[in-house]
Amino acid sequence: MHILSIIRIIGILVMCFSGAMLLPAFVALIYGDGGGKAFMQAFILSLMFGVLLWWPCHHHKQELRSRDGFLIVVAFWFVLGGLATLPLLLLDTLHLTVASAVFEAFSGLTTTGATVMTGLDNLPKALLFYRQLLQWLGGMGIIVLAIAIIPLLGIGGMQLYRAEMSGPMKEQKIRPRIAETAKMLWGIYFSLTISCALAYWLAGMEPFDALTHSFSTVSIGGFSTHDASMGYFNSPLINGITVLFLLISACNFGLHFRAFSTIGRENFVKIYLRDPEFRFFISTQIILVALCSFIMWNHSYFSSSWQDFEQVLFQAVSISTTTGYTTSDFTTWPSFVPVLLILASFMGGCAGSVGGGVRVARVLVLYLQGKRELKRVVHPNLVYPIKWGKTVLDDRVIGSIWAFFSAYLLVFLVCLLGVIACGVEPFDAFNAVLACLNNLGPALGSVSGNMMAIPDSAKWILTVAMVCGRLEIFTLLALFTPAFWKA
């Protein structure tokens, strides 16, 4: 294992991330409501730390192997989360404990959206911008961004890409060179962000809110600059824009690239419709919205059927894609609806998207395998391959999905027992772990609004759960196997 090369790369990435501290400092300069000093101090400390990591090892440029990539990804996420905590601790107005500050920073970077803060409307604009920026950077993955913009890394990059990207089919490359792939992904990501910000602004948001909410919308993060979340704007048009961009961001970004790169040569709509995961994802969204709308109409919860549908549409897409935006307190709705929405968050977004959960692709493959096993009960000798479109899936892919579910369940149970041991009631502990492991944010019970009531000891466990969810468990668990460290 090339430890010195790994340290060198982490140092470069940390130095690059330190530049992100300058943007909130600039926002503080514009609005003059405080926070600039804390972010400048955090920038200097982060930059110095990066230099200290990089300089002693700057001559070491060995080619990375697969396990080196995994170690860089995990180490960088934890180092980055620690450095992202600095402004939260240096700001005089917050008075957060170390555990709460770490939890908030990791919640942003992992696009979880769970928070320990209240009174957001009165906080400095620089801090609000910083929280949203963390989600935007974490959405596509800072590692991929670094590979795209730092050619001086001197590595092929595929090892980092495989460790960072989500989904069961992440070994499929969109292009042969990872730098081109990363640039393409971020090009799509950046274009969606600008489009979303313009749409919000034209719909009536202030420029600051439009930009910051585009960060958390396209990243499927869920942070807001207001305590009332998207309900603060009370606008059906803004809600509709949010739903549209959440659905786009919850789809596979590789699919977006393939679709828009063929405009003029092929009907790009057909590319989406031919994708099994996309069809399954949209179908489940339609069924979820229809079922929840029927329940709300039956209870006449809001003043009109249209309002029932509008609120259900927004909340169903927001929760099922693991965003966590709210327009009202959905936990007070007829109990069937919030429970169904929380369960839907387990599926989350598509593979290769910025959403959380176990991924639509995995759920679809298990559904197809279930159909096959039912047929085999009737016809034991039947040869019935599982197809992904026109491609027959290898049994190794199916086995890896079952392995993922086993690891997911193991991590969930360990975190659940740990949080309960910290003194949290079982129901609240279940919802807190669910919200963090699925990178969802809000849940039911006392954690429906924020995580302030969770003790600091439990916040450390939940922080690890967020990272596990963001790195899809195996990337982190691989470090705890003896085989990983053998030469």
Automatic annotation (TrEMBL):
The keyword Zinc does not apply. It is a multi-pass membrane protein. Keywords: Cell inner membrane, Cell membrane, Ion transport, Membrane, Metal-binding, Potassium, Potassium transport, Transmembrane, Transmembrane helix, Transport. InterPro entries: Cat_transpt, TrkH. The chain crosses the membrane at residues 12-32, 38-57, 69-90, 133-161, 182-203, 237-257, 278-297, 339-368, 397-421, 460-485. The keyword Protein biosynthesis does not apply. This is Trk system potassium uptake protein.
